[in-house]
Structure formats: structure tokens, C-alpha cells
Design a protein that fits this description.
This protein is an all-alpha fold. The chain contains 23 helices and no strands.
């Protein structure tokens, strides 16, 4: 009870402070109103959807609570949808919407238009909350664990950190940066920001643009249809009692999908997060990338250019990490072979840990390096180059780990203690993966270099070209590696036993 009252007091304080700040927009420019209204409103709408998924809020209006009364799915969806409008978070949004109506009115927007837009935004937030809680109840309730919370935390890092760096680097100089205006205009075309954008995009004293109204109406209709479908699905899927021990005791196995690929991914995550051999590989890659700045600086390369050098190295070596992942399994490989795991499930599952580590690190490193570089126009080129090297490296590693595995340190040994190896297969496998990723990514690297040296028009080509090449090589590598895995199970088993 004390926590509930403290939460209400904190929420009231936030609403009062935010409402006061919103009212100061009555004398601000139209661009400022557009940016604050759309971006802030979209963030609020997204929180209604994401908070139930991350926190695991228990829905008091869960349709499954009413199954004993045998309700009609349609009437129940409408009733619970309307009842969802009566809540403290929705009331807080309604108060902020009232403040925005006053702001829009001060900028010449008719009051009825502002009220209708605020009502549409309130209903949108409420439907997002219903959908988020329904999805969490159907899919995530029995898998709620610290591993799942860690996965959501990674998602927040991937999104929030680059956005924060981007906003911090903008130069306001008494006006709203054009990047924010463009971002607000794009978000206004989505369900998150459509309703909030209706008055903000309206000309002074005129009506809102037709497209904004259409997007807002279609968004409400689509969200209502999703809630309708989820309500019917929940009525036919009664809640199953789950013991506390069952709910969180399986770790990553409880979070991963119940498929062969999910099982391989969960086991790989356990290895990557607890085996010091894997941990050493993860730590060495960022350190090696940072050390790569030193030679260019000694050679006189400007800091603004040298700071971009670690990015492709970081992406390349992250993609290279799983090139010998089968060798690290030791005798555990027989589990996959004896249970008849398909090659595609094995190849895809083993890439999950690298993706969960590499993507957040790159998502933070790329905007930081570009911010230090000082020209955000090269951001798409940096993203494209990293995507090409990282994804193509993963694809080629999926082939190399099957065709040319080599002996590594055993479980429990020091990661820096390497066994004796006969022949040159180890060096060939490592070199071919690195060289192959560079070769297939060479067009993207060239376009990125042109963008960095002043020809910014190549930045978009580097972005889309890098994503296309990276995804193509990744898919091809997984397919080839899967086929090779199924043909070489005997040889792989012999290799694991002999090393």
C-alpha cells in the first residue's frame, strides 16, 4: 500500500511538472510544438505498449478472468476495451492532452480539432496497454525471469543509447534542428505519433492534413482489431497455474522458443555467459578495436577520422568469433547429433549469443564514433559497413566451423592456453573467414570511404548495400553450413572426441 501511494505521488508530480512545461509551448515556434508533441507523444504511446512486456504488469481486465461467465468474445472485447480507459495512467495522459489542447489553441488550431486529436491519442495509448498486457499474459507470463529481463534491457540499450547520443550532439542555436523536424514528420506517419500530429501539422487557423487524419483512424482501427483478436484468443487459452519453481528455474531454456533452434540458442547462451573461454573472446575484440586507433594517430591522421577506424574492426571480429564454435563444445556436441538436430537449427541457434552481444556493442559504438567524428551524414555509411562485415562474417563462420574446425583449449583450461595443432587448417580457416568478409564487403567499404572523404551522396548506397550484402551472405552461409553439418556429423563427432 505504501509503495502504491508513493507511486501515485511520484506520477502526480511528473504529470504536474510535464504539464507546466507543455504550457510554455504556447509561445514557442510551430516546429518546437511539432517536435515536442509528436516525439513526446510517441514515447508515451510506446511506453504503454512496452512497460507491460518489460515489467510484467498483471492485467485486472484479463479476458480469462471472465471465462466462467461464458461471455461473448465480441462484447467482452468492447467492454474491457472501454473499461481500460478508466485507469490512472490514462488519466495522466488525459491531463497532458488537456494541456496540449491549450497549446494547440494558442497556435491557431480550432479547439474541437485539438480535443478530437487528444481523445484519439488517449484511446490509442489505452489500446496499446491492452495489447501489451495481453501479449505478455499469453506469451511471456510463464517465462518471466531475469534472462527475459536481460533481453529487454539489451533492447532498451540498442534503442535508447544511440538516440540519446544523437540528441545530445544536436546544435540547437536558438531553433529546432532540422533532423528533429524530419524525425517527427516520419513518426507522424506511424500509429505511435499519428494522433498527436493532427493539430501539430495543421496550418494556423486551418484544418489538419488529410493524411494525418487517415493514419490516425487506420491506426485506431488496426489496434482495435488486434485487441479483438487477442481477446478471443485468450478466451480459448485459459491460464495454466505455474509453480514458482517451474517459472524461473530453467534460465535461458525457459526464455527461448521450444524448438530445436531455441534449445541450441539457450545452451549456447549458457556457454557464452559462463565459460571463460568465450568471455575472453568477447573482451579481447573491443580492446583490439580500440588499440587500432593508436597507429593512425601516430601517423598524423586527424582524430575525427581515426575514431572511425575501430568500427569496421569491431564488426569484422564479432562476425569472426563463431568461426570455430563447434570445437568449443567438446563432448557436448554428441547431444545435437544424437538427438537429430537439423543443420539449420544448429547453425542459427549458435549465432544467437554473438548477435545478442555484437548488436548492442555496435549500436553504442557507431553513434559514439560518429558523434566524435562530428558529421552525422556519415552515420548511414558507418552502419552499412558494420552490417556488411558483421553479418557476412557470421555467414562465413557458419561454414568454416563445420568444414574446418580446429582444436581449442578444453573446458576449465585457461583461454590463453592453446593445444598443439598439426597442419595449417587452423590458420587457413581463420584467415579465409576474415579475408572473405572483407572481400564481399569491399564495395560497401569503398562507398563508406567516399562518404567519409566528402561525397556524402554515397552514404545511402553504403547503408542499403551493406545490409543487402550482409543479409545475403548470412543466409547463404547458414544454408551451406547446415548442409555441410548434416553431411559431416560423423566426422564432427570424431573430431570432438579426439580433441
Amino acid at each position: 500500500m505504501v509503495r502504491a501511494w508513493l507511486g501515485l505521488i511520484a506520477l502526480a508530480a511528473v504529470v504536474i511538472a510535464t504539464g507546466g512545461m507543455l504550457l510554455t509551448l504556447r509561445t514557442a515556434s510551430d516546429d518546437a510544438v511539432l517536435v515536442v508533441t509528436v516525439l513526446g507523444g510517441a514515447a508515451v504511446a510506446a511506453s504503454f505498449l512496452l512497460v507491460p512486456l518489460i515489467v510484467g504488469v498483471e492485467d485486472q481486465l484479463d479476458p480469462r478472468r471472465f471465462t466462467i461467465f461464458g461471455p461473448d468474445a465480441r462484447s467482452l472485447a468492447v467492454t474491457t476495451g472501454l473499461a481500460g480507459l478508466i485507469s490512472i495512467p490514462v488519466l495522466a495522459v488525459a491531463i497532458l492532452g488537456g494541456c496540449l489542447v491549450a497549446v494547440w489553441s494558442a497556435h491557431g488550431v480550432p479547439i474541437p480539432v485539438g480535443i478530437l486529436a487528444a481523445l484519439a491519442a488517449i484511446v490509442t495509448c489505452s489500446l496499446f496497454a491492452r495489447i501489451g498486457m495481453a501479449f505478455a499474459a499469453l506469451v511471456l507470463r510463464e517465462r518471466r525471469s531475469r534472462e527475459l529481463s536481460s533481453a529487454f534491457a539489451i533492447l532498451i540499450i540498442v534503442v535508447a543509447v544511440p538516440a540519446s547520443i544523437f540528441f545530445a550532439s544536436l546544435e540547437w542555436r536558438g531553433h529546432v534542428p532540422t533532423q528533429l523536424v524530419e524525425a517527427a514528420t516520419v513518426i507522424a506517419h506511424t500509429p505511435l505519433g499519428a494522433a498527436w500530429a493532427i493539430p501539430a501539422l495543421a496550418p494556423t487557423g486551418g484544418a489538419a492534413p488529410a493524411w494525418a487524419v487517415v493514419v490516425a483512424i487506420l491506426s485506431l482501427a488496426g489496434l482495435a482489431a488486434i485487441w479483438w483478436w487477442l481477446s478471443a484468443a485468450m478466451l480459448t487459452a485459459p491460464e495454466r497455474p505455474v509453480a514458482a519453481r517451474e517459472r524461473g528455474g530453467l534460465g535461458w531454456f525457459a526464455v527461448a522458443p521450444g524448438t530445436p533452434g531455441g534449445a541450441v540458442a539457450a545452451r549456447s547462451l549458457v556457454y557464452w555467459l559462463h565459460d571463460r573461454r568465450y568471455m575472453a573472446n568477447i573482451l579481447v575484440v573491443p580492446v583490439a578495436a580500440l588499440l587500432a586507433i593508436v597507429p593512425p594517430l601516430i601517423a598524423g591522421v586527424p582524430v575525427e577520422v581515426a575514431v572511425l577506424v575501430p568500427l569496421p574492426i569491431l564488426a569484422l571480429f564479432f562476425g569472426w568469433l563463431p568461426h570455430d564454435d563447434l570445437a568449443y563444445d567438446s563432448t557436448a556436441l554428441w547431444l545435437h547429433i544424437a538427438s537429430g538436430v537439423r543443420g539449420a537449427a544448429d547453425r542459427i541457434g549458435r549465432l544467437v549469443p554473438v548477435l545478442l552481444v555484437g548488436i548492442p556493442v555496435l549500436a553504442v559504438a557507431v553513434p559514439v564514433a560518429v558523434a566524435i567524428h562530428g558529421r552525422w551524414a556519415v552515420l548511414p555509411a558507418a552502419v552499412g559497413a558494420c552490417a556488411a562485415l558483421f553479418l557476412s562474417g557470421l555467414g562465413l563462420s557458419s561454414i568454416a566451423s563445420v568444414l574446418s574446425p580446429y582444436a581449442v583449449s578444453r573446458p576449465g583450461d585457461s583461454p590463453f592456453r592453446q593445444p598443439q595443432r598439426s597442419g595449417s587448417s587452423a590458420g587457413v580457416a581463420q584467415g579465409l573467414v576474415l579475408l572473405g568478409a572483407i572481400v564481399v564487403s569491399s564495395p560497401v567499404l569503398w562507398w563508406a570511404w567516399l562518404a567519409v572523404t566528402g561525397r556524402v551522396e554515397f552514404s545511402a548506397a553504403a547503408l542499403w548495400g551493406g545490409i543487402a550484402i550482409g543479409v545475403a551472405v548470412l543466409v547463404a552461409g547458414v544454408l551451406v553450413g547446415a548442409n555441410a553439418y548434416e553431411r559431416r556429423t560423423g566426422a564432427l563427432m570424431e573430431f570432438a572426441e579426439s580433441t
